[in-house]
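Researcher: Structure for this, please.
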Amino acid sequence: MFLSLRTEVTEALSSALATLDVPSADLGIEEPPENVDAVLASSAAFRLAPDLEAPPPQIASRLAAAIDPDAYEYISEASAAGPYVNFHPSNAYYEDTLRAANDDEFGRLDSTGERVVVEHTSANPTGPVHVGRARNPIIGDALANVLDFAGNDVGRHYYVNDAGRQMAVFTWAYESFDESDLPDPERDKADYDLVRYYRKGNELLEEGDEAEVEAAETEIQSILQGLEEDDEATYERVERVVDTVLAGMSETLSRLPAEFDEFVKETRFMRDGSTDEVAERLREMDESVLEEGAWQLDLSAFGFEKKLVFLRSDGTSLYTTRDLAHHEWKLANYDRAVTVVGEDHKLQADQLDHALDMLGNDTSRLKHLLYSYVNLPEGKMSTRAGTGIDLDDLLDEAVARAREEVESRLDDRIRDDDLSADDVERIARQVGIGAVRYDIVSKQPAKAITFEWEQALNFEAQSAPYVQYVHARTCGILDEADEVPPNDLDASALSTPEERALLRVVARFPAVVERAADELAPHVVATYTREFAETFNAFYRECPVLSAEGEVREARLALVAASRHTMANALSLLGVAAPESM
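Model: Predicted structure, token format:
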């Protein structure tokens, strides 16, 4: 209903401006501070003051007086408060919010008719997923959820780098070393098994004698050349390693969970000829130069000092060349494309956009969501050196710590339902992994973060357990009531400040979804869940539900049900479980 009210406020202000015969201006529609008894407000009077040569409070009063609330369904009053025009909701606003939010799909927006691809994670298949890169799948998955809920047809893609030097090194190492020469794997999982070969190979390349290194480099170059020449035997050798490691990585990612519709391989764009076609088009450009045998694109007109190399001196393509073909494929098959990448890839992302533009593509349909990395107090992490903290380790620790917290609270639970050992384990997974996801996705992507257990698993602070507990509490109330609220509810029975405040927060959820999708900002949903939790807890403290009677009881039960749907859907967008009991 919030979106509908916003539309009515826009119409009312535009009509008032026309009636007063004053110039149109930025309507300045915004949400007022919490202490203002209104749902929306307008600051247009500030911008009209110079033209009308009158103080903003006077203009605001004229605008408010020119608005007829009876002409609108959801506006009960327009009032001036200093330089602002405040808009108050009608009872129909509350009633329609209550009905709409009692639907399981509350908050889902109408179809946009657009196909959007979200590429995220795309970590090189060289070993287990590390904590430092965990922000990518968590943000990417949440963003895909948000865009889907906002009415888009979303494809979730993982771009697999299976053609670069790292994979050639990995393939050579896997075929060269005997398992007896390797340490035991840290886990009984494919990615942990094979990463031992990769680490051993890099150790030899860095510390081996000259003859060993030379022989290895010859074989590595042979593998790269075989991929360029579409040699089937070479392709199968590399893919055996890639697919095995990727299967193990996918198993870890599914714990978050982060699922993918398609794993798009880099070699696809070498084998179908599109990489060669892109390289040829680039070579024909006036901005292309041949330096030291390598073809490079001069992007100095866009402020880049370093040229973009797209063909090596031996004629082989680079990752960037293949990624250009990949992005042209995205643009041919989707209306919009969003790529979630680390901040260290900003330069490459900017160069990619300019090169695509020069190739004749509409780059306004491309967006890059940049993020900073996750740090732990222990310090930096490195796959290659084998010294980092794997995401599996973090998730195991999260579940273990959550289990301890849940078990410590069993005697203090308000809800009278005995939890079995399986129930405790399920809740521990929901809370522990939810804590990791929520703590990471709740921060603005551009800000560097350090993950801290005390904050993430704090049931009292604004963390995942804090907001998850609200959903569990709504489930407990509804289970104990054991009745379904009627459809013909009168929202006038919800008259206390706490009830009205909760209804207003519920009503805003679709607008939160809209904003998060428009701004590619899933953290906006996390911020909303914290506000929602605070508002619901205030309602819970001041407005008894089960002990209420008659219409008040029915209306409060409906409000609790609306709250359950709202919180469940918001948590779902973040990829955080919504426990029914805690």
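Researcher: Any notable elements?
Model: Residues 379-387 have pLDDT under 50 and may be disordered. The CA atoms of residues 26 and 363 lie 29 Å apart.
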